[in-house]
Amino acid sequence: MTATRPVVLVAVKGLGIGGAEKLIAESARVWDRDRFDYRIAYALPWKDQLVAPLCDLGIPVTCIGTPRGMTPGSWLRLRRHATSIGAALLHAHLPAMGAVARLVSPVPVVYTEHNVAGSYRPSVRLVNRTTYRRNAAVTAVSEAVAASIAGYPGPAARIVPNGVECRIDPGAAEAARAELGMSASAPLVVHVGNIRPHKGHANLVTAVQALLRLVPDATVVSIGGEKNRGDLDRVRSLAETAGVAGRLRFLGRREDALAFVTACDVFANPSDFEGLPVAVLEAMALERPVVATAVGGVPAIVQDDVTGLLVPIRDPEALAAGIAALLADRDRATRLAVAGRKVVERDYSLEAMVRTIEAIYGEVLGG
Fold it and tell me: Domain 170-347: which topology?
């Protein structure tokens, strides 16, 4: 490594286990640190599950927030931090941090949009759009995401699809089934998604009601952390009220979520909004058949009856029917899973994603 590497400060609201945050942590493993001196800043001190893995990689991580989260004081700390480390460029992820970075950064801002604009609250969309022209460059994770911000005044978004790198671990899968008390042959469906508006948890509950009429011995596991305290109890209560709590288990946040994905027979994604879901890409990389709602960037990766099954938005009966069809026809499920893995290996490489983004850094920095 040389002493003249430009410092890239990657900024995100939190470092909890979410799609965009996990993508940063995974990307850090293949960053070109001979070319760039990477640092990370985040604002929500209670969302720090990925801090330790990043520090283990030797990436300096700084919390610029307070116990109250992202406040005006933390905005100033972001500016001071960027100045103190000699940042040459700031790469902001997601609208809240993106808007703050544009307002206070002393250096050019590269912004990545991970979700379709309609998935955000109106106030978040407004501040994102109002400050958007201050971006030096913008990337979007899918064509659907880019289209949703196409009218914003400022740089046109370049599509840089998310990338993943997963390895099948049979031992981890066996441990996951053992924890659930399930045999290797018992039908298991897994969903991974933090409990957020539009992530489809209520849709999943209703779908499980329908699924159990078709496959009475199926077990469905949903993995994802809370946005607000009480979210996990709320979705568990939905399952209780629907009479499916014995077959639908909400495990909360799990760092070993991929063990359960590897163990499943079908991966389900019931969301109302998506950018380009990392969880779906990971399931495909792990050669698991996917049934997903046709929203956002999902149809770009899940081609119906080729690399998975697509179902209409907010149609739990269709979601259940798709899952049941793949549980009943293992040959079809295997065909879709193999095709899905090949697509991810060909088009959604983690390293290819990082190299493309680093090329954009080079353009912004003029070299």
Answer: Rossmann fold (3.40.50)
Look at residue 110 and tell me whether its pLDDT is greater than 50: yes
User: Would 7-163+349-365 and 170-347 be classified into the same CATH topology?
Assistant: yes
Reading the block at residue 87, the tokens are 């940042």
- The superfamily in CATH containing domain 7-163+349-365 is Glycogen Phosphorylase B; (3.40.50.2000)
Q: Distance between CA 55 and CA 289 in Å, rounded?
A: 34
Q: Helix, strand, or coil here: 192? A: strand
Q: Comparing C-alpha atoms, which of 30, 24, 26, 31 is closest to residue 10? A: 24
Rounded CA-CA distance 367/365 in Å is 6
Q: Indicate the DSSP class of residue 227.
A: S
The residue type at 367: G
Residue 182 predicted with pLDDT over 90? yes
Sign of CA dihedral 112, 274, 126, 14: negative
Q: What is the pLDDT of residue 272?
A: 94
Name the residue ranges covered by the structural domains of the chain. 7-163+349-365, 170-347
CA 55 to CA 140: how far, in whole Å?
A: 27
Beta-sheet strands, E only, within 79-154: 87-93, 109-113, 137-140
179-182 long-range contacts (CB < 8 A, ≥24 apart) are 180/219, 180/221, 180/249, 182/219
